[in-house]
Amino acid sequence: MSSTDEAPVRLAEIPDLQLTRNEPLSRHTRFEIGGPASIYAEARTEAAFVEAMKAVNRSHVRHVVAGSGTNLVVADAGFPGVVLTFTGDAITAEGNRVTVQAGASLQSLVDSAIAHGLKGLDSMTGIPGQAGAAIYGNAGAYGNSISDFVREVRFFDGDAIRTFDNAACEFRYRSSVFKRHKDWVILSAALEFQSGDPTALAERAAQIHAVRNAKYPPGMRCAGSIFKNLILAELPARVRAMVPPEIVKGGKVPSAWFLDVTGVKGMKSGGIHVADYHANLIFNAGGGTARELRQVINELKRRVRDRFGIGLEEEVQYVGFDERLPALDTLASTPRIIDELISCMPPDDLNWQPAPGRWCIAEVLMHLAHCEEVCFVRRTRDMLDQSDPPLAPYNVDEFTAADWGFNGDGLAALARLHDLRRTILDMLETQPATSGSRAGAHPDLGRITLAELLNEWAFHDLGHIRQIAEIVRVRRFYPDMGPFRPLYTVNP
Ligand SMILES: Cc1cc2nc3c(=O)[nH]c(=O)nc-3n(C[C@H](O)[C@H](O)[C@H](O)COP(=O)(O)OP(=O)(O)OC[C@H]3O[C@@H](n4cnc5c(N)ncnc54)[C@H](O)[C@@H]3O)c2cc1C
User: pLDDT tens digits for 60-81?
Assistant: First the structure.
């Protein structure tokens, strides 16, 4: 029996575990986005949760743990494995100590603390999701994080149930040791609080709730903030100097500030919108897809990277995208090389011609861009949009620099190549690895898969870009060099 066949059989034997096959994950994410999980398993007891983890580990089947899905971005193709969730939600309070099962909602924990006159979690009222996930991501708001109150966390590490104290949980801003050990699952936690007046705590919670509801209306299909805020001390000095001091809170700079400067508010891609009142809030206005969502996320990251030279890190967690398409990393490295060429190559070098009758480098780049668009980008799009489309062979004679509107400007040629590459990479980065098996029919090559095409492309492209960089380097140091390889005829 294969591991994929074995897992459902093992899981079906576990009491208090409800299994659903091909369950659309859009029903379990606040974005209402995501294709089906092969199996969706809901554990009502801790014992069932632990047994289910043992079963998926033994079967070596892909699996992921989900809470209420308020911080998840799930691929349109879904998740080809088991999605496990825990709904045990007991909460017990004794003196200043509260014990909570991971499947309880954070709001019930907040309400329970307030009702028992325990201070601190009131500022976290209105954060959706389960207590276990809140510990995993060290959720927080208005100056408090859950780590301020956690004393112990019980978790299953795949072999045994263990307990960590607060220090061992390695809590950081929106992070914990559990984020680095995705194979560990949180079962329950003990928290301790100082005493407060229940009426005053409830009033503060109500005020915070009203502010939150204005920012995140209850039905909004979103994940709260998409990106983490940035730690001021970790920013390059050049960027630190640009940040207005009044926006820094608790040593953090809102990522919304960086996004706002790049003018992303109100941006739309299909059903996915950036809120027009908050640059770090992306929502599904209806009919949005994971592909569009990731495109918008990538675009926002790109703008901040281009403007400030810094990377934003997602607070949301991805499901179903964990393996990248083959060759994507190689392809993703070329825009950087192109950027460097743009910034350091004098136009003279771009117009350098190895010998009369040969193309200058700018023309070679233009030709590369043409090949990229007509051969690789078009075929990739066809394969993603249709099932087994016919693929036209690439005819190099189609390319004429004049038809492409090329006026000899080498930097324009580089920019064109860069834009084409960025657009297609953004599209490919939103695809799950399984898309690599999509294919098309080529009249000469027969059936080629997307994975094969990308591999070919990376090889072809990196070779050319490196050759061009090398030619330029050689020309700089040996200005008198002649045509350096008689066989290197770029004009076929
Ligand atoms: C409107 C809105 C407002 C928000 N505001 C805030 C805010 O102010 N502050 C804040 O911090 N967050 C906020 N969030 C984000 C979100 O609420 C939190 O990240 C929350 O903790 C996610 O809980 P969840 O149960 O939905 O987890 P999910 O989204 O289902 O999962 C999140 C992660 O937790 C992991 N996980 C879940 N359960 C377990 C477990 N038992 N053991 C190990 N790992 C587990 C999952 O694998 C996943 O990686 C907001 C979200 C929304 C939609």
Answer: 888 999 999 999 999 888 998 9
